Amino acid sequence: MRKRTNSLTDTGTGTGTGGSLLDSDPDLKQRPSRGAAGPAAEDREEPGDDRSMAKPFRRLGLLGKLKRTVLWLLLLYVSIPFIIKLCPSIQAKLVFLNFVRMPFFIDLKRPLDQGLNHTHNFYLEPEAGLKIGVWHTVPAQMWREAQGKQGDWFDATLSSAHPVILYLHGNAGTRGGDHRVQLYKVLSSLGYHVITFDYRGSPPDSLILESPFTNIREEAKSHPFSMVYRYLPGFDWFFLDAITANNIRFASDENMNHISCPVLILHAEDDSVVPFHLGKKLYTLASQSKTLIGHKVQFVPFPSSLNYKHKFIYRSPELSNILSDFFGTADPNTQ
């Protein structure tokens, strides 16, 4: 009896003869026993089967979402040209971007907040009900005197020997844009008065164009935003003709025939917003203009290796020499 008990324990079967049967029959050894683990084994197999069946459904669900996303993007892609063509007000907003205020939440009444502690903010009213904001930044060497001063003091400084630069910023944003503020600081440190305002046009004694284009049609065709449409049939009709019909022109190439003052064009070769070739083309037209005969027309390129792109020409250490050479004056800091 003791030996039989030991044999049952070692083989794990329910009968005394089970051990010898399993040992002698390999088929029986590999066949699972339902008596010992039947229900439990079935329970373990079922969840595995459910998971393997759920994976294809999950893949189908993701594929369906991807298809819907692609369809929405395609619909948006097709709709945009029609919206721009049919809605002139949207065209103007996309060109001027006057609704964009970057950086956000700045108070233009406080240029001090932008690090311009020698700048006076005031307003012009060219016509009833219309106010134009203006910043006057004095040369950096006057910053101590400028502390706590009012508009009369700033006005009086304009009679100094330091030249005055009117800075007319491009589309989008305000006179408080970061790269614009950095340029005011550079020009101020070079000894210039800087007056920047939300302009509508003024006749200057000389004209400096930073990263300019020839006209809005050529710029719109070259702008990165148009890349996804410019090679499709109907691009001119949907976009360029619509802009022209809305009387948005920015015809700098034509205006060169009406300018009679020295012109300086600055352009970076790696400018991706306004391609370098448009600035060079504008310079060629200006140098051929009859109204500019006898006036200095100068083009200064900045190599791609400098990485100035569209906004960062102000970083050039040569800017002081370029400006003083163009104005035909000594460096304002030496005066």
UniProtKB/TrEMBL annotation:
Region (Disordered): 1-52
Name the UniProt record assigns to this protein: Lysophosphatidylserine lipase ABHD12
GO CC entries: endoplasmic reticulum membrane
One term of GO molecular function: phosphatidylcholine lysophospholipase activity
SUPFAM superfamilies reported for this sequence: alpha/beta-Hydrolases
BP-aspect Gene Ontology terms: monoacylglycerol catabolic process; phosphatidylserine catabolic process
PANTHER family xref list: ALPHA/BETA HYDROLASE DOMAIN-CONTAINING PROTEIN, LYSOPHOSPHATIDYLSERINE LIPASE ABHD12
Species for this entry: Scomber scombrus
InterPro entries: AB_hydrolase_fold (IPR029058)
Keyword vocabulary terms for this entry: Glycoprotein, Hydrolase, Lipid metabolism, Membrane, Transmembrane, Transmembrane helix
Chain ranges passing through the membrane: 69-86
